[in-house]
Amino acid sequence: MAHPGGVRRRPGRVALAVDRFVRGGARSVVGAPHGRHRPWVVRVLESGGELAGCIAAEMPSSEHVRIAVIAVRAGSRRQGKAKQLLTDLVQDIARKSGGPPLISALARTDQLAVTRILLATDFKGTRVIRADGTGGALHIHYQYKTRVEYIDPDARHLVPVTAQTQLVESLAPADHAITGLVTLSGERAFEIARFEQDDPATLQSGEAAAGIAFSGSILAAITFLLGFAFSSTRFPDDVRLLLIGATFSTVLSLIIYASASGELARIRSNSFGKIMKWGNVLSEYGGVFPFLISLPVTYAQASGDPWTTMILAVVFSSAIAWYEHSEFSIAHRFQRSRSEVALIVLTAASPTVGAALVAAKTTSWPWTMVLIATLAARTWLYLFRRGAEADVEERRQWQVRE
Fold this sequence. Notes:
Blueprint: E1 3-4, H1 12-23, E2 27-28, E3 40-47, E4 50-61, E5 64-72, H2 81-96, E6 102-108, H3 112-120, E7 123-129, E8 139-144, E9 150-160, H4 164-170, E10 176-184, E11 187-195, H5 200-231, H6 237-267, H7 272-303, H8 306-325, H9 338-359, H10 365-384, E12 399-400
Parallel strand pairs: 5-6, 9-12
Antiparallel strand pairs: 1-3, 2-5, 3-4, 4-5, 6-8, 7-8, 9-11, 10-11
Helix pairs in contact: 5-6, 5-7, 6-7, 7-8, 7-9, 7-10, 8-9, 9-10
């Protein structure tokens, strides 16, 4: 059974063996390694105890990786081994890199085998590279795409591989790329597609505005409930304290969202994601959850009906539990641990427990302290023990939006 070998980052004996492997008759779909004094990443594939294929990539810097060699023995071709080597290498580089590096490869227009492999592994041909000594063929720069982008389905066309002048013209715009290789009238042709370009500043500005509007609405609701709490002499003091803390946290999130707007307009220190994480976490665990959890408790105090109180509290607990489990929650954007799951359970159970204590006319201070500690622990966990929300793994593929 074929299995991949280890990844090594310097040429040494491995790169020399790859060089001899390529020169000894195995098919090289990109080129042979050279410049041995630069860092290299090498991966080999073995089958039946013999070297069946290899891939080598040069790393001129920590942010750039250039695929230099993909070679497969004659008896091991057309089995998906080249694609497996390239996929494994890309995934390994992505795991070990601090940020998403630029992973690219060069292939001539007459190298259709490497073109098919690259296009099948999320590489897209983005531009033409001028090079001499290619025998009339063009060099195409293929780049691995790490984020979702959208194709305009009405702006695609086919260009024969031999129509080099038209190919250069088609790839001249920055939003055009090679996305496929097809057969057209008995000859090979590139599929050229146009990708819709997003404006990051506009998207971030819209996100900051949505955060300000959301926190403002939550603040208005909390303020209304806090006014009712102070006007009622029977309202539990611990719930008043909880609402006061929610008001403070929501106001703080509004200030942070405003800071995010300033980051976009003036500061531009590339910390928008970090600022938004603070605003999102504080508004949810300091404002939204205390407000929602206090509603059944408020109803229990105002109505005096234990049955309807408990039904309402169970509905709220079930809704919070569903939300926590869904992909819409803030917690879904971070990696979860066992301790965090326990905190999620405590948060979801809080409406039922709090309403039951008030309905039974017993002391609710211990419940309030546990709730405050739970929400504070989750806030601390997401702000200081987890990375940015952008660290969540993205679906690394290109999509066609119909």
